[in-house]
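Hi all, posting the design record for the shared folder.

TITLE: backbone redesign
STEP: 1 of 1
STRUCTURE INPUT:
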């Protein structure tokens, strides 16, 4: 059994920051669960282009308000606390935060913790070394 507290991750290499977000990576590929789990803060007033070509992601919003725009159809999906969205088609999208948003994100395949978005909003596949 493994128990991870958010406080144990903050300030370590498992807390990764981008311009618009901070991802606290609670479970990673090395934990052997077949998925990774992240507690992520999206900054208010930001728009982030994301396109997980190598991963599927489910996102549960526990705080805040924003929207996801799927780029293939320009459909706007409002997101608020206690809602989940699943990017089950490797959907290219924009994530817009009206307020600070706190999200719990699950990735399959799991990430290693070394990934950051590339210029296309993609997490590359990274092998554990």
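Okay, here is what came back for every position:
SEQUENCE:
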């Amino acid at each position: 059994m493994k128990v991870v507290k958010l406080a144990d991750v903050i300030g370590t290499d498992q807390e990764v920051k981008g311009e618009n977000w901070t991802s606290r990576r609670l479970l990673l590929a090395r934990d052997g669960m077949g998925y990774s789990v992240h507690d992520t803060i999206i900054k208010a007033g930001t728009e982030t282009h994301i396109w997980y070509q190598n991963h599927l992601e489910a996102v549960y919003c526990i705080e805040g308000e924003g929207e996801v725009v799927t780029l293939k159809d320009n459909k706007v999906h409002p997101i608020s606390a206690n809602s989940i969205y699943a990017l089950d088609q490797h959907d290219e999208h924009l994530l817009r935060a009206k307020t600070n948003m706190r999200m719990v994100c699950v990735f399959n395949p799991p990430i290693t913790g070394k990934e950051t978005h590339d210029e296309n909003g993609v997490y590359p596949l990274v092998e554990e070394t």
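COMMENT: Strands lie at 15-17, 21-27, 36-42, 47-50, 56-63, 65-70, 75-80, 83-87, 93-97, 101-108.
Let me know if anyone wants the other runs.
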